[in-house]
Amino acid sequence: MAKDERQAPWQGLVEWYEALVSALVVMVLLFSFFFRIIQVDGGSMNPTLRDGDKLIVWGAGYTPQRGDVVIVDDYTSYGRPLVKRIIAVGGDTISIDYTAGIVTVNGEVLEEDYIAEPTFLGYDVAFPYTVPEGELFLMGDNRNASLDSRSSSIGCIAEEDILGKVLFCFLPLEDAGVVK
Fold first, then answer.
1. pLDDT tens-digit series, residues 102-149
2. Which helix (H) or strand (E) holds 170?
3. Residues acting as catalytic residues
4. Which chain regions cross the lipid bilayer (predicted)?
5. Which residues are bridge partners to 173 per DSSP?
Protein backbone atom coordinates (compact mmCIF):
# COMPACT_ATOMS: atom_id res chain seq x y z
CA MET A 1 0.00 0.00 0.00
CA ALA A 2 2.76 2.47 0.85
CA LYS A 3 4.25 2.05 -2.64
CA ASP A 4 0.89 2.87 -4.33
CA GLU A 5 0.42 5.94 -2.15
CA ARG A 6 3.84 7.30 -3.21
CA GLN A 7 3.01 6.89 -6.91
CA ALA A 8 -0.33 8.68 -6.65
CA PRO A 9 1.13 12.24 -6.42
CA TRP A 10 3.36 11.61 -9.46
CA GLN A 11 0.47 10.18 -11.42
CA GLY A 12 -1.60 13.32 -10.74
CA LEU A 13 1.32 15.52 -11.84
CA VAL A 14 1.72 13.55 -15.09
CA GLU A 15 -2.01 13.85 -15.81
CA TRP A 16 -1.87 17.60 -15.14
CA TYR A 17 1.15 17.92 -17.45
CA GLU A 18 -0.61 15.97 -20.23
CA ALA A 19 -3.69 18.23 -19.91
CA LEU A 20 -1.49 21.34 -20.11
CA VAL A 21 0.34 20.06 -23.20
CA SER A 22 -2.96 19.13 -24.86
CA ALA A 23 -4.39 22.60 -24.15
CA LEU A 24 -1.27 24.24 -25.61
CA VAL A 25 -1.48 22.09 -28.75
CA VAL A 26 -5.15 23.05 -29.21
CA MET A 27 -4.29 26.76 -28.74
CA VAL A 28 -1.45 26.57 -31.27
CA LEU A 29 -3.70 24.84 -33.80
CA LEU A 30 -6.52 27.36 -33.27
CA PHE A 31 -4.21 30.35 -33.67
CA SER A 32 -2.39 28.79 -36.63
CA PHE A 33 -5.39 27.84 -38.72
CA PHE A 34 -8.39 29.83 -37.49
CA PHE A 35 -7.34 32.93 -35.57
CA ARG A 36 -4.42 35.33 -35.84
CA ILE A 37 -3.26 38.17 -33.66
CA ILE A 38 -2.27 41.34 -35.52
CA GLN A 39 -1.19 44.76 -34.30
CA VAL A 40 -2.42 47.95 -36.00
CA ASP A 41 0.44 49.97 -37.47
CA GLY A 42 -0.52 53.60 -38.12
CA GLY A 43 -3.59 55.80 -37.93
CA SER A 44 -5.33 55.01 -41.24
CA MET A 45 -8.22 53.23 -39.48
CA ASN A 46 -9.00 55.94 -36.89
CA PRO A 47 -11.52 56.22 -35.26
CA THR A 48 -12.39 52.50 -35.59
CA LEU A 49 -8.90 51.27 -34.72
CA ARG A 50 -5.86 53.06 -33.35
CA ASP A 51 -2.11 52.64 -33.78
CA GLY A 52 -0.94 49.80 -31.53
CA ASP A 53 -4.34 48.11 -31.08
CA LYS A 54 -4.05 44.32 -30.87
CA LEU A 55 -6.63 42.46 -32.93
CA ILE A 56 -8.01 38.94 -33.24
CA VAL A 57 -8.54 38.01 -36.88
CA TRP A 58 -10.67 35.13 -38.23
CA GLY A 59 -9.28 33.57 -41.41
CA ALA A 60 -10.59 30.02 -41.87
CA GLY A 61 -13.27 29.87 -44.56
CA TYR A 62 -13.70 33.65 -44.61
CA THR A 63 -15.42 35.15 -47.67
CA PRO A 64 -14.80 38.90 -48.10
CA GLN A 65 -17.90 41.12 -47.75
CA ARG A 66 -18.42 44.86 -48.28
CA GLY A 67 -17.96 46.75 -45.03
CA ASP A 68 -15.71 44.18 -43.31
CA VAL A 69 -12.47 45.31 -41.70
CA VAL A 70 -9.77 42.95 -42.96
CA ILE A 71 -6.05 42.24 -42.78
CA VAL A 72 -4.06 42.13 -46.01
CA ASP A 73 -1.09 39.75 -46.07
CA ASP A 74 2.34 41.32 -45.75
CA TYR A 75 3.82 39.73 -48.89
CA THR A 76 1.83 42.09 -51.14
CA SER A 77 3.63 44.91 -52.95
CA TYR A 78 3.17 47.20 -49.94
CA GLY A 79 5.41 44.91 -47.86
CA ARG A 80 3.64 44.82 -44.48
CA PRO A 81 0.20 43.79 -43.20
CA LEU A 82 -2.52 46.35 -43.90
CA VAL A 83 -5.69 46.87 -41.90
CA LYS A 84 -8.43 48.32 -44.14
CA ARG A 85 -12.18 48.21 -44.80
CA ILE A 86 -13.67 46.51 -47.88
CA ILE A 87 -15.53 49.16 -49.85
CA ALA A 88 -16.21 47.23 -53.06
CA VAL A 89 -15.80 43.65 -54.33
CA GLY A 90 -15.15 42.26 -57.82
CA GLY A 91 -17.62 43.60 -60.38
CA ASP A 92 -18.64 46.64 -58.29
CA THR A 93 -18.21 50.13 -59.71
CA ILE A 94 -16.98 52.72 -57.25
CA SER A 95 -17.03 56.50 -57.61
CA ILE A 96 -15.66 59.13 -55.26
CA ASP A 97 -16.73 62.77 -55.37
CA TYR A 98 -13.77 64.41 -53.63
CA THR A 99 -15.45 67.82 -53.60
CA ALA A 100 -18.48 66.55 -51.65
CA GLY A 101 -16.53 63.80 -49.86
CA ILE A 102 -19.02 61.13 -50.99
CA VAL A 103 -18.28 57.51 -51.93
CA THR A 104 -20.75 55.56 -54.10
CA VAL A 105 -20.75 51.87 -54.97
CA ASN A 106 -22.91 50.74 -57.88
CA GLY A 107 -24.63 54.14 -57.85
CA GLU A 108 -25.60 54.01 -54.14
CA VAL A 109 -24.09 56.43 -51.64
CA LEU A 110 -22.36 54.59 -48.80
CA GLU A 111 -23.62 55.31 -45.30
CA GLU A 112 -20.30 55.56 -43.51
CA ASP A 113 -20.81 56.37 -39.86
CA TYR A 114 -17.42 54.78 -39.11
CA ILE A 115 -15.20 57.28 -40.98
CA ALA A 116 -13.19 60.05 -39.31
CA GLU A 117 -14.31 62.65 -41.89
CA PRO A 118 -15.62 62.77 -45.48
CA THR A 119 -13.33 61.59 -48.28
CA PHE A 120 -11.54 64.65 -49.66
CA LEU A 121 -8.09 63.11 -50.36
CA GLY A 122 -7.56 61.53 -53.77
CA TYR A 123 -4.67 59.67 -55.33
CA ASP A 124 -4.00 58.55 -58.91
CA VAL A 125 -6.83 56.02 -59.51
CA ALA A 126 -9.47 57.54 -61.82
CA PHE A 127 -13.18 57.18 -61.04
CA PRO A 128 -15.62 55.67 -61.80
CA TYR A 129 -13.61 52.48 -61.35
CA THR A 130 -14.83 48.90 -61.78
CA VAL A 131 -13.16 46.42 -59.43
CA PRO A 132 -11.77 43.39 -61.30
CA GLU A 133 -13.28 39.99 -60.42
CA GLY A 134 -11.45 38.27 -57.58
CA GLU A 135 -10.16 41.57 -56.21
CA LEU A 136 -11.24 44.03 -53.52
CA PHE A 137 -11.22 47.82 -53.24
CA LEU A 138 -10.08 48.77 -49.72
CA MET A 139 -9.98 52.08 -47.88
CA GLY A 140 -8.99 53.20 -44.39
CA ASP A 141 -11.63 54.78 -42.14
CA ASN A 142 -9.38 57.82 -41.69
CA ARG A 143 -9.82 58.60 -45.40
CA ASN A 144 -7.69 61.72 -45.54
CA ALA A 145 -4.73 59.99 -43.88
CA SER A 146 -4.91 56.56 -45.52
CA LEU A 147 -2.85 55.08 -48.34
CA ASP A 148 -5.21 52.50 -49.84
CA SER A 149 -6.80 51.28 -53.10
CA ARG A 150 -7.21 54.86 -54.31
CA SER A 151 -3.47 54.78 -54.99
CA SER A 152 -1.91 52.63 -57.71
CA SER A 153 0.94 51.85 -55.26
CA ILE A 154 -1.59 49.74 -53.30
CA GLY A 155 -4.40 49.24 -55.83
CA CYS A 156 -7.03 46.57 -55.58
CA ILE A 157 -6.11 43.58 -53.45
CA ALA A 158 -6.55 39.97 -54.59
CA GLU A 159 -9.03 38.07 -52.41
CA GLU A 160 -6.40 35.40 -51.68
CA ASP A 161 -4.18 38.08 -50.11
CA ILE A 162 -6.73 38.65 -47.34
CA LEU A 163 -5.62 36.97 -44.10
CA GLY A 164 -9.06 37.36 -42.55
CA LYS A 165 -11.71 39.53 -40.98
CA VAL A 166 -10.96 41.54 -37.85
CA LEU A 167 -13.30 40.29 -35.12
CA PHE A 168 -12.15 41.84 -31.89
CA CYS A 169 -9.75 44.39 -30.46
CA PHE A 170 -8.39 43.12 -27.13
CA LEU A 171 -5.62 45.58 -26.24
CA PRO A 172 -5.39 48.22 -24.97
CA LEU A 173 -8.35 47.55 -22.70
CA GLU A 174 -9.92 50.99 -23.31
CA ASP A 175 -10.24 50.10 -27.02
CA ALA A 176 -11.37 46.50 -26.40
CA GLY A 177 -14.51 45.34 -28.16
CA VAL A 178 -16.03 43.89 -31.32
CA VAL A 179 -14.83 45.64 -34.49
CA LYS A 180 -17.63 46.82 -36.77
1. 999 999 999 999 999 999 999 999 999 999 999 999 999 999 999 999
2. strand 162-171
3. 44, 84
4. 20-38
5. none
